[in-house]
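> @MW can you paste both from yesterday?
MW: sure, first one:
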Amino acid sequence: MAATTALTAQNTQGVHDIHYVPPAFVSKQIDACIDDIGVDVVKIATTGAQLLPNAAVTNVRTQLLPLTTILTPNISEARLLLENAGAKITPEIKNVKDLVQLASLLQPMGPKYVLVKGGHMPFDKDFNVPQQASEQKYVVDVLHTDDRTTIFITDFSYSKNTHGTGCSLACTSLTTPTDLFSLQPST
């Protein structure tokens, strides 16, 4: 179950418009699924567009995250939540360890699981941010819970039509988050 905070008019090229769901209706959604809530509160799109007003980020962090089963932020969203909480994070992502740090810092805010989606930040063969586009080799997603971190590695494939892929991954993970741990992580 999920609570939708905004509706977007979008395609594979980007976000064209945003309609914020009235807070009273968001509250009704949360009340309806309070016992088993999943949150994919899209706050920053791949294009860099911030979809959630700054004033709402604190409410998401303090009111929704403690009720969340699985949080599925992209890197920018994870950083936004952590900066809002005053967490000390690295100024920029340099390697996969930095993605793991984001997930491990978010999880104590309430979600049982945190899946940091790294699909739009490819890494080189040594799992560092590449210096040149020709060095892009892998994309990495990090799943973290109290006692376990799983890193999913996929070959990088360039495409200009990746808009919405993170939302698709988030929706899939909301159905059965524990099944993600049964997948074999890449080595």
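MW: second:
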Amino acid sequence: MSFATSQKRLALAITDFLSNSLKDGTVSSEDTESIEIAKSCIADTFHVDPNDQAALKDAIGDQSLLSIYGVYEKLKGKNSTAPMPGASNTKASSSTPKPSGPTPTNPEAESFKSQGNAAMQQKDYPKAIDLYTKAINLSPTNPIYLSNRAAAYSASHKHAEAVADAELAVSADPKYTKAWSRLGLARFVLGDAKGSMEAYQKGIEYEGSGGSEAMKKGYKTAKEKVEEEEKEGASDGATRDAASPTRGAGGAGAGGGGMPDLAGLASMLGGGGGGGGGGMDFGAMMNNPMFASMAQNLMSNPDALQGLMNNPRLREMAQNMGGGGGGGMPDIGAMMSDPNLREMAMNMMGGGGRGAGRGAGS
């Protein structure tokens, strides 16, 4: 194909783009005359006939200049004005006719593709990627080359690159269903189960007759994963909802209004609810500000409570009071004469309690 012929094909593609822009409303009817003048100037300059459908088909196949340029923009990493067919976050526009076939094949590109296929059979994936890339450089919008490279990327565990190539392939030709299958697989491996399910669904639609077994199996697997994730999300939400009232009330073991369950602490220490029978009068103990502060800190700090119960001196006192052996309230003064218990009490009452203790002793 000579350079002059390439120019003529491009000129025909431009006149076709201008005509479509009028038909789909991209430009207003007020600009009809200007568009017609532009088409006429291009046709006269390049000696082409915009009404020659055979020549137009030879120039761009079943695609359009806008869709071809959209694929080019994606290859260059830019946002395309032409939406990918089947994309859930874009609206199909009548200004962007859907491409329905590959561009005319290039013999040299076909040779690179065949060599790439041979490399794939030998599981030489880096070589296959290199060969497919050479084919794509010669024919950037060929969905087969793009889809094949996507497969090579997936085999090399480069799934993000596989997604990019497969998306380009389905954008170039949504009827090439292998690209939908490869897009579904790559998205699934990347954790996008919903996107995978959508890709397989589009593949089934374009295959027709309910889709192939492989495509249906891929769709089923992706759908099951989506449903599993939705159930897990609902379960996690229910767990958080169930836990939040407990946290709001002051945590496990808390009483009303977020206060610690002091009666529960009494039972942990071996005492009952009252002072009868020689047991510990817990209510009287709570009248002591130091013990009240200790109790609050203990119930909000399980680690501190565990440390307290591991103290042999305090455990012995709790056992004596609970069994009625010693009887009655403990001697607070005697308890505080034990340096270990005194330090523990100061720690549980916080910084203020520790400072107060030193101030009182100075």
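> thanks! The longest helix spans residues 213-248.
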